[in-house]
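Problem 3 from the worked examples.
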Amino acid sequence: MKRLFCLLVLPAAALLTGCENNAASYVIDNTKDHSISLVREQSFAWVGPVEQRFVVSRFPECQRRYSIDSATTTMVKIDLYEVRPMLYAAQQGSAWYALGTEECVLQKFKEPPPVIPPGRLIGSFEKQADGKLVFTPIKP
């Protein structure tokens, strides 16, 4: 029985190798109630791209999750800019997004913003060498 269990479980564990379920957050105003988070999920390593979502939160007023362009398992960093209080811009490669925390909204730019950078760079979402997703703030 133990041998049968090993024969079934080990291949199943190998199937999950390479999956990704990662998240990192930029905490605004030093309160966990106001944040922008990036979530990356991939069910199986060999099946398609990694799904990416921004979660824009300002409790108790709102919280919304938005799918953004999918990515590969190799993370391309996402820079986060503060345009003004409660309005942010995110850039991953050639894709740009506007994120508003006042009403928890997100909109993808059809073209890059007219002014680059669109505001003050506050940090980046990126993967560490160990595979963990982090938000790395810019040091003042």
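Problem 4, a separate protein:
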Amino acid sequence: MPIIAANFKTNHTRSSTAKYVSLVNNYLKTNSTSDVYIFPTATSLDYFETVANLHIGAQNAYATQNGSFTGEIGTEQLDEFYIKTILIGHSERRHILGETQEMIAQKYQYFKALGYRIIYCVGEPLEIKESGLDATLQYMQTQFEGIDLSYENLVVAYEPVWAIGTGVTATNDDIVNVHQALKKQCSKPLLYGGSVKLGNVESICQLDGVDGVLIGTASWVAEDFIKIIENTKEL
């Protein structure tokens, strides 16, 4: 069964997140499925009593326990809620918020040393994609600099930047070609992300080399996310 992950980005409140997690958790109590991940906003993180295969993670954190880092959260804040799962390398942090590969690798090494489950994101912008598969793979190779791909608690997510939040999903050939190439480099579970929605998630999860999906916009309504889990649980 595929891994299904929801990234709230800058959406939902503490109250709506609690309702969302409760709905998904209640569904999972009576429906056998593989790992499900929910990444709320930092202000919505909390301790949730969940079934074993529902994981609450942080979208981001600084590589520190605590300290003088205005606007950041560290492991002291995550530990309060027993959170041991984190997204690292998302394209919005790379391209909008200016995280360099050096910063990302430092963060990766820090949370790896603490045993966190890491969903590590890679993906190419449109101008690279238009240059062909070789250019795409070369570009993503730079996103693996300083990243230990043998880490036992790693999941990799391929998210083409040009497909995130645009409504444009990569073609099946695009997805398969990149996933097959990445599989030769890394034996960890490999997710696809980029305008995944209820109408295409089942077909995407059945593609060669795809072990699940990381979903943005289409996951923000709990009932829709539950339907996505339902439609993929038999795969």
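Solution to problem 4. The CA atoms of residues 26 and 143 lie 37 Å apart. The chain has one domain: 3-232.
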